[in-house]
Design a protein that fits this description.
The protein contains eleven helices and no strands. By secondary structure, it is mainly α.
């Protein structure tokens, strides 16, 4: 049984490159317009950059149109999850990664579109968008804590145990890891005798990330010299701990993911509703004339 735990693909590398290139571009646009953005609001009409950088300006409109298009494109992920006809377009995991990219870059461009002045009804849409983006980042973290197969479907307890047993066997047979070392890895993952609440499970998962990484690094020093197999061993040890911890906290993390959806969706509804009103009013009043 193949799992997505601990794997890095060419698509992941492409996405990281796209993130970095896009963030550099947005940073350049921000620095380039910084003198205008730092100008007090009453004095902005007299600034040389006003015609370009105001929300209805030549650059401001581009930021707004592209950012809005990205926010609308976020909805394609929901369509992909619910449509069997789109299975051939790629696994849900890849769609989610691009969904998150749009959810970061769209708000950044819309922030440039506002020229850092948000008032009136649009403010409710803007801060709802910020809430969607921040909660989306947290949702992505929760999503990563729930192991999935290559099709993006969540693994159940029995599937997790089967995967963990396969990893245990590989560590014993191919890397010479002892049963005592495997038990030590399981102790890193958490106490099997303690029943954690949902919030406690979330805080434990977040708080233990760096501690587990340090412990794994120390364990690697004692287990494996510098060999070509060292990277594979490191990945397998991390996968063992991740699988065991997620098995211990699976119910709590699934519950947290459910409640995250309950909170995330209302913000998205408010954002899209007021966004539609804003775009409609802008078109009606001719702010995008000649775009």
């Amino acid at each position: 049984m193949e799992s997505t735990v601990g794997k890095t693909s060419r698509f992941d590398v492409i996405m990281v490159t796209l993130y970095l290139a896009s963030l550099v571009a947005v940073a350049f646009l921000f620095v380039d317009g910084l003198p205008y953005y730092l100008t007090p609001f009453p004095d902005r009409p007299h600034h040389p950059g006003y015609a370009a950088l105001r929300p209805a300006g030549s650059h401001g409109l581009v930021f707004g149109v592209v950012g809005t298009a990205m926010m609308l494109a976020l909805l394609l992920y929901s369509v992909r999850k619910r449509s069997r006809k789109l299975v051939a377009t790629g696994p849900v995991r890849k769609w989610l990664n691009f969904h998150i990219y749009l959810g970061i870059m769209g708000p950044l461009l819309i922030t440039l579109h506002t020229s850092f002045r948000v008032t009136g009804l649009v403010a409710l849409s803007y801060w709802s968008m910020v809430a969607v983006a921040l909660s989306g980042a947290f949702g992505r973290y929760l999503y990563q804590q729930i192991p999935r197969n290559v099709l993006g479907h969540a693994l159940g307890p029995s599937e997790l145990r089967d995967r963990e047993h396969l990893v245990d066997r590989d560590l014993r047979e191919n890397h010479g890891i002892t049963d005592e070392s495997l038990r030590h890895l399981e102790r890193m993952a958490g106490d099997t005798g303690s029943k954690r609440s949902m919030m406690n499970a979330i805080f434990f998962t977040i708080g233990s990330e760096f501690a587990i990484r340090r412990q794994l690094n120390r364990l690697m020093v004692s287990l494996e010299p510098e060999t070509p197999q060292r990277l594979e061993l490191s990945r397998k040890l991390a996968e063992k701990v991740a699988l065991h911890r997620r098995l211990l906290l699976l119910d709590q993390l699934n519950l947290a993911f459910h409640y995250w959806h309950v909170i995330h969706k209302p913000f998205a509804i408010v954002m899209y509703t007021i966004l539609a009103v804003h775009v409609g009013v802008s078109l009606f009043l001719g702010y995008v004339k000649g775009f």
